[in-house]
Amino acid sequence: LGLFQRLSHHPELTDGDDGAAFFGRERRRAWLGIGAYGVAACAGLIYPIAALPFFLVLPIFYALTSEGTR
């Protein structure tokens, strides 16, 4: 997450014209993942079966958005 922050604020460190925008979008994607895993962990403490859908859906989400969101 820190890497995405740094690269979105310093586009000269990327190798493309839209690097800053890309890393800004990826930063939001990373926050979504962190939050979702946090919700899953909290749900798992209360009722472990409730966390299962989160842990099944999150890898699919990351696979579908691995090339960046459009």
- Helix count equals 3
Shape: elongated
- Strand pairing plus helix content: what structural class? mainly alpha
N-to-C order of helices and strands:
HHH
Q: Estimate the mean pLDDT confidence.
A: 84
Radius of gyration: 15 Å
Q: Could you tell me how far the N terminus lies from the C terminus, measured between alpha carbons in angstroms? A: 20 Å
Helical residue percent? over 70%
Extract low-pLDDT stretches: none
How much of the residues is beta strand, in percent?
A: under 5%
What is the count of β-strands?
0
Describe the sheet with the most strands. Answer: none
List its traits.
elongated; mainly alpha; 70 residues
Notes on the protein architecture:
The chain is mostly helical and 70 residues long. The protein is built from three helices and no strands. The chain has helices spanning 2-9, 19-46, 48-64. Helix 1 packs antiparallel against helix 2 and helix 2 (19-46) packs antiparallel against helix 3. The longest helix is centred in the middle third of the chain and has 28 residues, at 19-46. It is elongated and about 45 Å long. The protein starts with a helix and ends in a 6-residue tail after the last helix. The mean pLDDT is 84.
List the helices and strands and how they pair.
Elements: H1 2-9, H2 19-46, H3 48-64
Helix pairs in contact: 1-2, 2-3
